[in-house]
Design goal:
Shape: globular
Distance between the termini: 41 Å
Order of helices and strands: EEEEEEEEEE
Strand order of the largest sheet: 1-2-3-4-5-6-7-8-9-10
Number of domains: 1
CATH class: Mainly Beta
Radius of gyration: 15 Å
Strand content: over 45%
Oligomer: single chain
Length: 102
């Protein structure tokens, strides 16, 4: 991607030595805007980023088939969202600090 003042800016791809990979928008060297983060363990997040944190609307999927679609704040499920369990169970409603509150 592009660099401005020695920091990543605009659309780009970054791969960490751990195998984690991010493809999306950068601003001031941080993940900002829309992007997809593929974790080496098989987890995946696609959605909004603010200053390197999952914040806004997004989808997080786990290798076991679980999936959360909804709002995030500071990397945690926060706000309206739906958790789809691999076993077919669905939990829809309000989330706070990664916990379902109804």
């Amino acid at each position: 991607g592009d660099w401005v003042d020695d920091k990543q800016a605009g659309q780009g791809v970054y791969t960490w030595p751990s195998g984690d990979r991010y493809e999306g928008q950068f601003k001031d060297g941080n993940k900002n805007g829309k992007g997809t983060y593929d974790f080496a363990n098989g987890d995946k997040y696609t959605g909004d980023w603010v200053d390197d944190h999952r914040t806004g609307q997004g989808v997080f999927t786990w290798p076991n088939g679980n999936r959360y679609e909804g709002q995030f704040k500071d990397d945690k499920k926060n706000g309206q969202g739906t958790f789809y369990y691999a076993n077919g169970k669905v939990q829809k409603g309000q989330w706070s600090n990664d916990s379902f509150v109804g």
